[in-house]
Write a structure and sequence with these properties.
It contains 15 helices and eleven strands. It is of the alpha+beta class. The chain folds into three domains: about 5-65; about 75-180, Orthogonal Bundle (DNA polymerase, domain 1), CATH 1.10.150; about 195-380, hpI Integrase, Chain A (Orthogonal Bundle), CATH 1.10.443. A four-stranded antiparallel β-sheet has the order 1-2-3-4, with helices on one face.
Length: about 400
């Protein structure tokens, strides 16, 4: 393809014009250049196209002067690599950065990984969330649920905000994106047990085992599974019946380590019922017997819940054990996190103030609790109205 030099910094190749702006030198003595392309409207004469190109070049040059790091030709994949290299290690927890990176590689890179930042628009992102599918538990590709779309959107927001703060782009295309808001199906709303189901469910976990103990502790306390697996014996105050949440167990690429809780409010104290006290005392007795049997090979005697060899308890293995336990039962819709929903729902349906429930769960603020349990709160409001009507009707 023949090229034609139109003016300083402007070269025509075919129907498009390439702009080049010199931005000085790097500390290594290499010249910094910013480039972009411009294509005039179809049918424009050469003379008119040259004029438009010169005008656009001036605009581009002015933008470059105002934004020393302007890089709208950077591709999304390059931006995300920069994000995980520069931003993530300093601003995100290791487990969060690890999960974000996996989600970007799995969901985003095939769709617009090779697109230039200047090509990515709010409309493109809206289309992505409206058409993107991912396999469910049975391997069937399904549209993104509103909750999963929101999680992915949070990642994109963070990446594009980073791009703006680093002057790679002027504005984030993640603004004004329309996310899926379809109503959940009946199956999707089944996140917790009803009170009438609790007795049958708990009967499956009566006998002592580490798994049964963890499941009942999760159900009785509302802890996140990572918080439960991050408990140390010094966090358990049997005298005052208090559990202190100080850590969460994270898994990054198969390596386990303790990190700080999810948010500032996640570091909290949870009251233990007599049932939980008895569960943990019985578990401690069995764990001491195991430590004696394994002698010095029991790796983490300070941890409340461990593997059979005393290593950190793997969350994915715990989830698999739980799934196997409830497989082919009426409770096979549950997940480990469902037990936390069960705990919160029982409290709210019992009339416990939402602020207390929010503190109990360790949510960052009461709005998070209200958003997650909107349906439960609506039912509670209706019950309140009925109670008032009954009282006044007497």
């Amino acid at each position: 393809m023949k090229s034609r030099r139109v003016d300083t910094g402007i070269v025509q190749r075919g129907k498009s014009y390439t702009f080049t702006v010199a931005m000085g030198m790097t500390t290594e003595g290499k010249q910094i250049r910013k480039t972009t392309t411009f294509t005039p409207p179809e049918g424009t004469t050469e003379k008119k196209a040259d004029k438009l190109a010169k005008e656009e070049y001036i605009n581009f040059k002015n933008r470059c002067k105002g934004l020393s790091a302007f890089n709208e030709n950077m591709r999304f994949k390059e931006l995300s690599e920069e994000y995980f290299k520069v931003y993530a290690p300093n601003r995100l927890k290791p487990i969060t950065a690890y999960n974000y990176e996996k989600m970007v590689a799995y969901h985003f890179n095939d769709y617009f990984g090779n697109k230039k930042l200047k090509e990515i628009t709010s409309g493109m992102l809206t289309n992505f969330f409206g058409t993107h599918t991912s396999p469910n538990r049975n391997g069937v590709n399904m549209p993104l649920s509103p909750s999963n779309a929101k999680k992915l959107y949070t990642i994109l927001q963070s990446i594009f905000t980073f791009a703006v703060t680093q002057d790679y782009i002027k504005e984030s295309p993640a603004r004004n994106v329309i996310l899926p808001s379809k109503k959940a199906t009946q199956d999707e709303t089944r996140k917790y047990l009803t009170e009438s189901e609790l007795t049958t469910f708990l009967s499956m976990f009566q006998e002592y085992s580490p798994l049964n103990t963890i499941i009942k502790v999760l159900l009785f306390t509302g802890m996140r599974s990572g918080e439960c697996l991050g408990l140390q014996w010094e966090d358990i105050n049997f005298t005052d019946k208090i559990i202190t949440i100080r850590h969460t167990l994270s898994d990054v690429g198969g390596k386990h380590f303790l990190t700080t809780p999810k948010s500032k409010n996640s570091r909290r104290s949870i009251a233990m019922s007599d049932s939980v006290v008895d569960l943990l005392k019985e578990h401690k007795k069995h764990q001491l017997e195991l430590q004696i049997a394994l002698s010095n090979t029991f790796v983490h005697p300070e941890m409340v819940f461990t593997s059979d060899t005393g290593n950190y308890k793997d969350r994915s293995c715990l989830n698999t054990s739980f799934r196997n336990k409830i497989k082919n039962t009426e409770f096979d819709f549950l997940t480990l996190h469902s037990l936390r929903h069960c705990n919160a729902t029982l409290l709210l349906n019992s009339g416990v103030d939402i602020k207390i429930v929010s503190d109990h769960l360790g949510h960052s603020d009461i709005g998070v609790t209200a958003d997650i349990y909107a349906d439960v709160l609506e039912t509670t409001r209706k019950k309140t109205a009925e109670i008032i009507e009954l009282k006044l009707a007497k």
